[in-house]
Amino acid sequence: MKSNTNNKSKSANQFLLMLCSSFILLAGCEKAEMQQLSSEAESKSDLKTVLPPPPAYTMLIIEHNALTSSFPDYDVYLLSDGSVIYRGWSNVAVKGRRDFNVDAATVSYIKSLFESANFFSISPIPHQDGDPVIYTTFSNRIQTKQLFDYDMGMPQLLIQIRKRAEEKLNISQYVQGEKLNLISSTL
């Protein structure tokens, strides 16, 4: 009987030893797996730092459409990365296309100018045939809206922010020839 008890005791000890060994083995595997997951997460975060920024989008378009020969006819495009495209058609100091860049602070200023003026809430005015029209299109990547004015008082807020944006972009150098500096521009 004693040998039967010893065998049971020995079997129980072996079982406990196997159970403990299994726990240790599992804990070791779990630790290795956690280290591997942590390593993968670190490599993914490294990928995020080397990915390029999202592509630029057209944030602002200002189109001066002259219907008569006495008004300037030109377009200005501002991209979110600071790229600016000017295209002069008629009654401007510089005809043709000019590309230049503005700094991030200028882009941020113009974006906040339109957002703080609640551009998307400005009510459109009725269209009048025969007058030169200025179209202003603004996009914050989520929504885009186009409004127009005739540069004659309505909607006053639109005219103010459009003119401020053109001043900040120094478009008058191409339209009126003021302080013309084409060194940084390309054709």
In short:
The chain has 187 residues and is α+β, with helices and mostly antiparallel strands. Helix content is 42%, strand content 22%.
Give an overview of the whole structure.
The protein is an alpha+beta fold and 187 residues long. It is built from 4 helices and 6 strands. It has helices spanning 2-50, 104-116, 156-168, 172-175, and strands at residues 58-65, 73-79, 83-90, 96-101, 133-139, 144-149. The chain has a 6-stranded antiparallel beta sheet, with helices on one face.
Helix and strand arrangement:
Layout: H1 2-50, E1 58-65, E2 73-79, E3 83-90, E4 96-101, H2 104-116, E5 133-139, E6 144-149, H3 156-168, H4 172-175
Antiparallel strand pairs: 1-2, 1-5, 2-3, 3-4, 5-6
Helix pairs in contact: 2-3
Helix content estimate? 40-55%
Structural class estimated from helices and strands: alpha+beta
Q: What is the arithmetic mean of pLDDT?
A: 77
The end-to-end span amounts to 105 Å
Number of strands: 6
Cα gyration radius (Å): 34 Å
What are the key terms here?
single chain, 187 residues, 22% strand, globular
